[in-house]
Design a protein that fits this description.
Length: 251
């Protein structure tokens, strides 16, 4: 049995408060300016917010409000003029391009409006590529599996020019999720698709995201699509003017 001295020491020992979970993204006082012949143009100014793991967040705003610039900064594709971005504990703002590229390769997936598939590679090869770049010993098996999941098991050997827009975006979704990223950035993922095809892609995107438990950050001008997310960040002239949860979000 512990003696009285040990008991007193145990009682006196301060209890540590539980640590708050590390956020998926932490953005502080973020700003972006670019030089022009007529002077400096401010694209973003004093933007700050936190996104937790598993959140689904839409970034909305009028054309020119800074949405795509903000996405580029969050993903480490560009460097801010002011402030900081921390992605899953990694301080992107203090890294050079090689460091940011490492973080993207390890933790980030992308889906773009223009698909961004390599035309000289088949659907299967496009999906295998990020795994090969990461150095995975077997890139083909998971690439085949996820292409089957997105409904393209019969199109593995087709090149992008042989695929419809919807099929190309399915390949892009497969490529984005095949690395099992902790964060997925989607920039107007239905912008080049008709309404029916776009809706099918969105259903697939949210289904894959829910299954993988990925943190989703989605840039869109489509308010209906934004409403599928759990939270909406609204930009106006480079400033964050609203940050609100979505009532009854489907995702």
């Amino acid at each position: 049995m512990a003696d009285s001295t040990e008991l007193r020491a145990e009682v006196a020992r301060p209890k540590l408060a539980p640590q708050e979970p590390r956020p998926a993204l932490q953005v502080s006082a973020l700003g972006k300016r670019v030089p022009l012949p007529s002077g400096e143009l401010t694209i973003l100014q004093d933007v700050g917010f936190r996104i937790d793991h598993g959140d689904t967040v839409a970034i909305v705003g009028a054309s020119g409000s800074g949405k795509s610039t903000l996405l580029s900064l969050l993903a480490g594709l560009d460097s801010p003029s002011d402030g900081s971005v921390t992605l899953d504990g990694e301080a992107l703002s203090t890294m050079d391009e090689d460091g940011r590229a490492r973080v993207r390769g390890e933790k980030v997936g992308f889906v773009f409006q223009s698909f961004q598939l390599l035309p000289s590679l088949t659907a299967l090869e496009n999906v295998m590529l990020p795994l090969e770049l990461r150095g995975d010993a077997d890139a083909e098996t998971p690439a085949r599996q996820i292409l089957q999941k997105v409904g393209l098991a019969e199109r593995l050997g087709h090149y992008p020019r042989q695929l419809s827009g919807g099929e190309q975006q399915r390949v892009a979704l497969a490529r984005a999720f095949v690395t099992r990223p902790s964060l997925l950035f989607a920039d107007e993922p239905t912008g080049n698709l008709d309404t029916h095809t776009g809706q099918a892609i969105i259903e697939l995107l949210f289904a894959l995201n829910a299954e993988a438990g990925t943190t989703l950050v989605l840039v869109t001008h489509d308010e209906h699509l934004a409403g599928r997310c759990g939270r909406i960040l609204r930009l106006d002239s480079g400033a964050l003017v609203d940050d609100a949860p979505v009532e009854g979000a489907a995702a």
